[in-house]
Amino acid sequence: MIDDGLRFPPGFTFGTATAAYQIEGAAAEDGRGPSVWDTFSHTSGTVRDGDTGDVACDSYHRPDEDVALLRGLGVSAYRFSISWSRVLPTGAGRVNQAGLDYYRGLVDRLRDAGIEPAPTLFHWDTPQALQDTGGWMSRDTAARFADYATVVGEALGDRVGRWITLNEPVVVLANGHVEGTHAPGLRLGLGAFPVAHHQLLGHGLAVAALRAASPGVPVGITNNYGPVLPATDAPADVEAAAFRDAVHNLLFTDPVLLGRYPAALAHLAEGTEGDLAAISVPIDFLGVNYYFPEMVRADPADPLGSSGVEWPDAPRTDFGWPVVPAGFTTTLTGLRERYGNALPPIHITENGAAYPDAVAADGSVPDPDRVAYLDGHLRAVRAAMDAGVDVRGYYLWSLLDNFEWAEGYSKRFGLVHVDFDTLARTPKQSYGWYRDLIRAHLP
Ligand code: FCB
Fold this sequence. Notes:
Blueprint: E1 13-17, H1 20-23, H2 36-41, H3 63-73, E2 77-81, H4 84-87, H5 97-112, E3 116-122, H6 128-131, H7 140-156, E4 163-167, H8 169-178, H9 193-213, E5 219-225, E6 228-230, H10 235-250, H11 254-258, H12 276-279, E7 285-290, E8 294-298, E9 306-309, H13 325-339, E10 346-350, H14 368-386, E11 391-397, E12 416-418, E13 425-427, H15 429-439
Parallel strand pairs: 1-2, 1-11, 2-3, 3-4, 4-5, 5-7, 6-8, 7-10, 10-11
Antiparallel strand pairs: 8-9, 12-13
Helix pairs in contact: 7-9, 8-9, 13-14
This protein binds beta-D-fucopyranose.
């Protein structure tokens, strides 16, 4: 039995989430073209231990095994991402039918298992050929993204339950183009602003393309959010926190929901007014990822003007991220306060935690810290719903341990343990916990 703090209304979607480059492997098979993450991970010194996504979880070759794991959990939806360069090897022009066939096979298997497919079109893996002509710094990439949306919309639109255009565009901006810790590894500082604008434009154009190709399928965007607090009340810290908040929490939401850039960033966005109508085309839901809140102090050496300080009094995950479920509730109620009636229904498209899990001698994988994290964060979502926030679903990150970007395989987020030598999958304690939670909601 579960108590009211973990009880969600009838029809609430319980799912899990993954992303193409993090799980698929088969990086050079069946006509897939390279993406910026192939190039980046093969550049020495970029990813911990020199790890790459060449094999990852090998999910490309194991759709039956992975869908069986989803079926065993009892989830009603699965968020995965489509590799742009598997479908369009050079990002534009020639379509790779084998790539489309793979995703068609996946959505068919999901449908047969009673699981709603919820694909993301862009989870950070820009086709390398487009990067070679400027990537997201180039306005043309937004138009190519819309063309790609038309291709997948026409091929899969009759079978998917919802579309997500972009995943966490702020990470592509900040990690990928401001700081260079993610692909494509550029360090452009605030000069990277066009990467924000072109992703937003690509999102808006893709919404229109998906609507035309697959009428009636809900479309949204996924952003990550989290409270940003100043470390002290010194004006410099307060100002630095406000700027970071604008970049992290407002930059990819105000233009979409309000049709304008946040005031703190307006000076960077001069001359983009003509695109705001296309960017703010209505969406059907907002995808919200939440992991942790931040506390920052002014730091003139940082390209965004601030650096993090340790969050006080919180346990930490294996990533060092503070565990603060209350920050999830205030993130959700804060969205409601800022956007009011302009806020569409919310789907929590990611939430989860990394811990150093290992398979025990008896074959079990105890992960009580993850269970506690999930319990606390689902209660935090429920609390926000009680406060009036319209949340319709929760997609747990992640189904499988996978390639965690610059951290390689060193950070495990899965409900299912993956042995990266044998690729064996072993459900963890948290898998059973989530399965039981879902079962308790069956009519
Ligand atoms: C998010 C990413 C996802 C995964 C989790 C841990 O920022 O969208 O791919 O790496 O963090």
